[in-house]
Every structure is written in C-alpha cells, then in structure tokens.
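Form 12-C: Joint structure prediction
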Amino acid sequence: MKIYLYFYTNYYIKPISMPRQYPKKDCVNSDCKMSFTPQRRNQLFCISQCRINHNNDKRREKNLTVYRLEKELKRNEKILMKLMASPTYKDDQIAEIFIIHEGFNFDVSSDTKLNSKTRQLIRWSHAYGIEIKDPAHKTFTIHKRNRI
Ligand SMILES: [Zn+2]
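Section 2 - Result
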C-alpha cells in the first residue's frame, strides 16, 4: 500500500512517499537462498556479496563452456586434417564410418557456409570443414579453408 503525505502550497502538491514494503523473497545466489526483505522491487540478492559470488560463478561456467567448445573444434580440425591426407579419402570424399571412427563431433562448428556450387552447407571447425557429398552413401567432402 502506498501512503502519501501531502504538502500543500499555493502552486503545487508535493507527495512525500513513505519507504515501500516489498514482500520477502529468496536470494538468487544458489549457495545462499536466504529469505530477505528487498529494499527495491527488482532486488535479487540479500547482500551485494551474494550478487558478486553469483555473477562470478556464472562467468566461470560460461568460460568453461567456451573452453570445451574450443577443445572440440581443435579436435575436429585435427581429425579432418588427418582424414584428408589418408588413403580413405578418395575422389574428394570419405565414408562417414571413417569420420565416426576417429571420434569426430558432428554437433559443433566454428561457423558454416553455403557451398554455392553444391548448395550444401560446409560446417567448419576452424581451418577444416565438412560437407555432405552423397547422402545416399553417407560420404563427405573435406574442405581446407583458403587463407586470405
Ligand atoms: Zn544471499
């Protein structure tokens, strides 16, 4: 409930608001979760240290995810480089089974680009990319990026 005390003058009415009461809530910091009375409506943490800890944890988590993705991309890159030079890579294609056997991660890519000639998507792992060549026979073409 909002309570106003009105101060009258000849020209204007100036409301003087009382400190607002907000309902209790639980601190968003998962290590704390303490019930507290917010001073502001959008207050999420009981104390500022809880906010700092929570944000540090989130940043650490994000860095770890970036680190893991980078690790997978580097691994994919190595695999494609190796396969491209191997005797199993013939006529610009290689069977999916060889790629799977090496442990290639099909779920990650650094970027993708549409091959304007084939109308297929090249999924890059940095310098090396993979593109479906023959969907019926599950073969892939490996690309090496042209350095600009
Ligand atoms: Zn807290």
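Section 3 - Comments
Helices lie at 48-85, 96-101. The chain has a mean pLDDT of 90.
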